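Aim 2, interim progress. The first record below pairs a target sequence with its structure tokens.
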Amino acid sequence: MDYIRQYKSFVNSHYLSEGIRITVGLTLPAILLSYFNHLSAGITMSLGASCVIIVDNAGPIHHRRNAMIICDALIFLVTLLIGFILHLPIFLGVVIALLCFIFSMIGVYGSRASSIGLAALLVMIYSIGGNSFGGNVFINALNILMGGVWYTLLSLALYSFRPYKLAQQALGDCIQATATFLRTKASFYNNQTNYDKNYQELLEQQVSVHEKQNLVRELLFKSRSIIKDTTPIGRILVMLFLDIVDLFERVLSTQHDYTALHQAFDKSDILLRFQQMIMEMAGELDEIGIAVKAGKVSEINSSLNTHIKELRSYFNDFRDQQRTAANVENFIDLRHILETIEDIGDRLYTLHSYTTYDHQLAKKSAPPIDYEKFITHQDIDFKLLRDNLTLQSNIFRHALRVCVATTIGYSVSKFFPLGHSYWILLTIIVILKPAYSLTKKRNYDRLIGTISGAVIGLTILYFTKDKDVIFGFMIAFMIGSYSFMRTRYLIFVLLMTPYILLLFYLLNPANFKTIITDRIIDTTIGSVIAFVANIFLLPAWEDEQFTDYLIEVIEANTTYLLDVTGRFTGRPFSVTQYKLSRKQAFVALGNLSDAFNRMLSEPKRKQKNIRVANQFVVLNHMLTSHIATLSSYAQKLAEKYQSQDFLPIIKNIQIQMNAAKATLQNEPLRELNIVQKESLRVLNDKVTSLMEKRKSELDGGIIETDTKKNLGELKFIADQFNFITKIATDIEKLSKSFALNAERQTPNAS
């Protein structure tokens, strides 16, 4: 592990800059007002700012601005409401239940709306424990509002100074995620590779790449100032993103029969040399990502091109010594891997050049793309909310779960003499998520993080009582915790707990031990309530919607396939349509992989069809990869080998995919598969004829011929059609098994 590279990546990430921004936004009001003997008002303002922080997650600036303004208004109104009814415990309990349901339900409008709801619930909880606010209810609400407005202005002001920085940092993260994906692909060339483990890691990394691509897509394509920017930086950021998505497709396209390759070449070191070269390119891609995040020019590794040439030379010598008429097919596969490595190497040099933000480079023409088609829009339509008021909706069930759990938590806090009992509600609110697996992980992380963080805080206080030193530790913990707030919840809680404990110690040293005890007890009670609610209160299990993810990925892969293969039959080609179908295929595959990973975290009894589901995920990943592989060659060879002979093959694959979809939807089949063998035989016979001719040439000592070139090209195209046809057949068969098992298990489903 390269710790220096990890350090550089973290220092230049938007997570660290966000951590620093949040720390300044929270501490400045309290510090300034304490100087004027208004510490209580300063802390209240900081609480208001802490609520708005939640909705200020990465995204287009106008979305962030609107969300923060709405949040400012909501936290003011909620604080007023709770302040006026705080002395009416029964009525307060009813309001808590209603607000929890309402603000959880608005999650139907997307993640940012969900963040606004969470912020409103947090200020509700702060207000319940806010007898510490003191003073007039309206003044408290006004201080909360002022804190929210202060942070809103701070965030918008910092953006105005560096409008491209967030896009650069997110794009750099996307590039580095692609580098990690490339490293995972390299592991398939290891002699002792574990295919199941590698595919699992590949699927997990696929989800990460998808999430980061989607964020960059939102930042760039929803920001009209960037899309229409006439300056080099705006245009190059868009070009850089388009190229990194193309590169990811190229990496995804390196899908081969690894078992056959290992059987043929494990006695030599050729595969390990390929692995070493791929790892070197992944490191180079990492350096480009770090440079993009830092806004600096990346340094080109001059030895990279040399190493690729040396690998080409070694391969040529190895091939000339080992090639026979019997193993010529294996060497064709090796040559295609080498060509992919060379192609990726060329793309890396292009990416390096983008980091210069050169004016001439920015003028490079790119295919016209309708960017609006690549982003999703969420309209605030009341009908969507109304349609989700049903137990079939996961958001509705989640809202009911939060409503009941917080009501139980509030009742516990009233019937038992617990100090800081609002921490019970706080724990429930932040832990409970719509998915069981997410709630389970958050529950575990919060308990472990709270206990471990308390130990860290106590250790610091054991060795020092100097308030300046303690304050320094507190600020460091604040920056660290908020830097991991959106990525690593365990580390966030681990650093947040000592920060809170040190803060309370500075504010009230006399009651410090009580505060520690309260936090651990209240967190434990809240975690237990959240855990029980997660299992027994209308739980949402992944198997209930896994079929929908399967149908979605089958539809997306079918469209992607038709757009790629259409070039081989002479169908008109649209760059925008191709890129759109590619994006939808990647997104659907990422969603399927993510759902499967969540399923693995559920109780064993709820992991229905898990073996078949795993096969489905792997098969669809392989299908997407082979389509991407075919796409990489369609761009340069489709016109040369264009033929109507491909039509029945494509039609056959489409029929198989439609049959799988119909089976999963429990619909009757409309078409029968009747052309598979005949359609593929024509293509394979052409390859066989060329293969026999090539073997005759090799037996006769003839090395360089047109047959060699044509065989390498046509065989690779034919191989992809054969792979895709076989995978489509397997998906069709597997869909029947999946549907049959689901039907058998339905009576026992909860």
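The second target in this work package is listed in the same format:
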Amino acid sequence: MVKHGDTIDSVFRKTALQYSEKVALIFQEKRITFSELDKQVDKIAGVLGDRGVGKGEMVIIYLPHMPEWVVIWLALQRIGAVAVPVTHFYGHEELGYIVQDCGAGTIFCSNKNIDQVLKASSKYRLASIIVVGDRAEFKKPPGMESTEIFALDDLLKGQSSPPPQVEIDGRDVAEIIYTGGTTGFPKGVPIKHVLFLDTINGTRKAVESIIPRTKAITVQGAPLNHILGQDLGLGSILSGDTLIILPKLDLDEFLFTVDKYQATTLFGTPTFFKMVLDHGKINDYSLKSVLYAVCAGEALPNETQKRWTEKVGRPLYSIYGATETCGLVSGVTVGEQAPPGTIGKIVPTKQVKLINPDTLEPVQVIEPGELLVSSENMVTAYWNKPEETSRHFIPLEDKIWYKTGDIVRMDEQGWLFFVDRSVDLIKHKGYRVAATRVEASLLKHPAVAECCAVGVLDGNVGEKIKAFVVLKKDVTVDELIKLCSESLATYEVPHYIEFRDTLPKSPVGKLLRKKLRDEERQKQNSADSHS
């Protein structure tokens, strides 16, 4: 239970003290006990304190999965700084935007992406760049004389002071997670200690009947910069369980790890679980130890759920949440019989409304409506985005509600079912891709007059990205794909590009994205009926 005044660091300290010799982390067969993890956290917290990083300061974690990621995140909580975790796939444009938006002065990166950091920092000044792992040879761009670059190993070899003693309140901001949306760049979601602890406590409590606390062995199946990855990953450590981190999500390594360490808990997107089931070597490994497998990020196909249950002998559970709600809004309680296609029932810490998105009036039972979410310690605003905040966080009945943009329906028993989304997001492999970002990248080419991006349903990855482009002059598809690859993350690059003479528009000139999406689905339905 989360107590008044608890912080992420206070909970971790208690856990590390109580289970000091228990294994907290496993990475490439290296085991780190809670005691060892606590000492590493203390060391990095001291190093950051010596570098002048204090309470409330923003620090970006721009790293692939490794133990240092977890240690740095916990160290920032110890000194009251604000962690800003971002995917290590981001290029310098996205990274530079986040540096400017949150005002970070320090960033942790690897030798593989320091070039992107240097490009970003040449425009948006960073005070300190700390490189984890071997520091690669590089040239500091002109104008960056004031930016200091360190290797973390060098800093740790020196004599550091104990972590600074700071007073941290449970309502202080612990981190800012950037999430995609319908605007061009991601929006920062500030998450308080108490909200984060409420979330992970509720998630862990839901499975205690089959996996007692401290007995879970969890394989990290979603990015640590993603709220799902944090809820079940970082939440695992704070609960006294063991977390296994994989450097990358290779299916053979994943299945080998589950089998070798007798993992009890798995999580990821429905697409990921389908890929596991489709893997040609799945029968070479045992999944008998898995007691709790859970997915989120997109709708779970009934066929995937059925196949998983037949293969493992236990259900694949579906949960629903958002970064803005700090994760879990609804889910299926372990052991409960759930109807096919549901995203679960509302968790105790959240309240919801289903409304007509145009009138904000409640809809009738069973009727679909936009999902609104509220909670006691909820996020109430985006970071530095007053206009976006006013659109997505609205006052109703003396409460602030987050407008999810998702259309759902609820039956008489309280089960929720996803219907559609009212915002133009493309869900590819569990990532939320803003169509406007894809379009903005394409429009950088002088040959492109206008364009529109939509999601095309795909059984393997959820949706693939298709762009419709009107040209001013000739250009090849390969040239446009190359342009997008230079300015977008790998998962945002279009899979298909179709040239058209015109694009459908409303009487006021607004692109009719839905019309293009519907056309693609009609083509797919027609193809399926003739196959």
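The chain has a mean pLDDT of 90. This observation will shape the mutagenesis plan for the next reporting period.
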